From TrEMBL:
Segments crossing the lipid bilayer: 27-51, 63-85
Keywords: Copper, Electron transport, Magnesium, Membrane, Metal-binding, Mitochondrion, Mitochondrion inner membrane, Respiratory chain, Translocase, Transmembrane, Transmembrane helix, Transport
Catalytic function, reaction form: 4 Fe(II)-[cytochrome c] + O2 + 8 H(+)(in) = 4 Fe(III)-[cytochrome c] + 2 H2O + 4 H(+)(out)
Binding note for cofactor: Binds a copper A center.
Membrane topology type: Multi-pass membrane protein
Pfam family, one: COX2
GO molecular function: copper ion binding; cytochrome-c oxidase activity; oxidoreductase activity
Protein name as it appears in the record: Cytochrome c oxidase subunit 2
Described purpose of this protein according to its UniProt entry: Component of the cytochrome c oxidase, the last enzyme in the mitochondrial electron transport chain which drives oxidative phosphorylation. The respiratory chain contains 3 multisubunit complexes succinate dehydrogenase (complex II, CII), ubiquinol-cytochrome c oxidoreductase (cytochrome b-c1 complex, complex III, CIII) and cytochrome c oxidase (complex IV, CIV), that cooperate to transfer electrons derived from NADH and succinate to molecular oxygen, creating an electrochemical gradient over the inner membrane that drives transmembrane transport and the ATP synthase.
Lineage: Eukaryota, Metazoa, Chordata, Craniata, Vertebrata
Top-rank taxon, per record: Eukaryota
Primary location: mitochondrion
Sequence similarity: Belongs to the cytochrome c oxidase subunit 2 family.
């Protein structure tokens, strides 16, 4: 999860998020190089006493400042498109969950287990236990098996919402009357926090998302217990 004074992204908990972090570092290095080069040119032109009043054009300079930006754009665009296609790839998910946005809570339906469905409300500040995070903890977490592809079907019942978990590189709009889908794979067991990322009304900031990734054995026990209670 995020921590105070954090400047970068959250630690990656999915393969796609790892790719995004690598691409971010790659693009940032290119930005630094361009900025340093432009700063050097500005300083050199301001500080020099040399002038050339007869220079009207230069074919070499024209070629350089046309080709060089094109090369830089290619170096950024190719890995960006690769990650874009990776994010849209959904191959044989082991589990499908439908997330429905409401004002102001989320509800989840495990479509592979027809009886498993529950609402997920934020735990009020006065009810949180030691170790829980204020405004982020919920009464029912979305439990998924770790290291297994999970497909999320996302929609809304009333207004626009957005289901987002930064450490899993997931952010998808929840649109009334429309079913969007995305997927993720958690690389390790853990608890991952997110929030609605579309301004949806007065309590927009009070409908957090909590994904709990567990081992397959624990997930089977959890699903069996939920089916018994249904």
């Amino acid at each position: 999860m995020a921590h105070p004074y954090q400047l970068g992204f959250q630690d990656a908990a999915s393969p796609v998020m790892e790719e995004l972090l690598h691409f971010h570092d790659h693009a940032l290095m290119i930005v630094f190089l361009i900025s340093a080069f432009v700063l050097y040119i500005i300083v050199a032109m301001v500080s020099t006493k040399l002038t050339n009043m007869f220079l009207l054009d230069s074919q070499e300079i024209e070629i350089i400042w046309t080709v060089l930006p094109a090369v830089v754009l290619i170096l950024i665009a190719l890995p960006s498109l690769r990650i874009l296609y990776l994010m849209d790839e959904i191959n044989s998910p082991h589990l499908t969950i439908k997330a429905i946005g409401h004002q102001w809570y989320w509800s989840y339906e495990y479509t592979d287990y027809q009886e498993i469905a529950f609402d997920s409300y934020m735990v009020p500040t006065q009810d949180i236990s030691p170790g829980q995070f204020r405004l982020l903890e919920v009464d029912h977490r979305m439990v998924v098996p770790a290291e297994a592809p999970v497909r999320i079907l996302i929609t809304a019942e009333d207004v626009l919402h957005s289901w987002a978990v930064p450490s899993l590189a997931v952010k998808m709009d929840a649109v009334p009357g429309r079913l969007n889908q995305t997927s993720f794979i958690t690389t390790r067991p853990g608890v991952y926090y997110g929030q609605c990322s579309e301004i949806c009304g007065a309590n927009h900031s009070f409908m957090p998302i909590v994904v709990e990734a567990v081992s397959m054995k624990y997930f089977q026990d959890w699903s069996a217990l939920m089916l018994e209670d249904a």
